[in-house]
Specification:
With 202 residues, this protein is α+β, with helices and mostly antiparallel strands. 26% of the residues lie in helices and 22% in strands. Strands 1-2-3-4-5 form a 5-stranded antiparallel sheet. α1 runs antiparallel to α2.
Length: 202
């Protein structure tokens, strides 16, 4: 398969028959008006394309019944623990929730990303209790689901560093922000890309 290194190139990826069969099944169960069903189909297609070309992203669950919901495994290192003891855990399971109203400008509804596993994520932008919601900042209406995956990867790997607990953009775990302020040389936790192939070093 041709190497893919950006979100823009996902449109060139041809899905395997099993993925096409999954999309057909999801289509039959998809609800809502025609424009929303079409949008969910497009987003689901790109999500499966991403999983097809990346060695560090897998789609575990996909649901188009009402909202678009997906559960993804990302092989990204993430800090877990407390200020007294922080460990690096490789691999997270995240839930993506994409409601139809997130397409509407000015309605105040945004897609949501939450870390299902591991528990105890120690990150400035992750709520330190279940559900471990990840703050990705103000998202534009109609942001693509694969963009959410890309932003989630970069945030959890701390490639996009946000460690100022006073920043108005919103730090959700001040203790983690202060911890990483004094260890900025340890960041990012990996420089690996979401589009990494199996042979790439972490």
């Amino acid at each position: 398969m041709t190497a893919v290194t950006s979100l823009a190139a996902l449109g060139n990826v041809t899905l395997e028959p099993k993925d096409l069969a999954l999309l057909a099944m999801l289509d039959r169960r998809s609800g809502g008006p025609p424009h929303w069903r079409l949008r969910k189909r497009v987003e689901a297609t790109d999500l499966l394309r991403l999983a097809a070309v990346s060695s560090v992203a897998r789609c575990l669950e996909l649901d188009l019944d009402d909202e678009l919901r997906a559960v993804m495994h990302l092989e990204v290192p993430v800090a877990v623990g407390t200020e007294e003891r922080v460990e690096i855990h490789l691999g997270v399971v995240v839930a993506l929730r994409y409601p139809a109203m997130s397409l509407v400008p000015g309605c105040g509804v945004q897609p949501q990303v939450a870390v299902l596993r591991p528990t105890g994520v120690f990150h400035p932008n992750v709520v330190p209790m279940p559900p471990q919601v990840l703050c990705l900042g103000a998202l534009p209406p109609g942001v693509r689901v694969v963009e959410l995956c890309w932003m989630t990867w970069r945030a959890l790997a701390m490639q996009d560093r946000q460690v100022d607990e006073l920043d108005p953009a919103g730090v959700l775990h001040a203790g983690a922000a202060r911890y990483w302020q004094t260890r900025i040389g340890c960041l990012p936790l990996t420089r690996r890309s979401l589009f990494a192939r199996a042979e790439e070093a972490s």
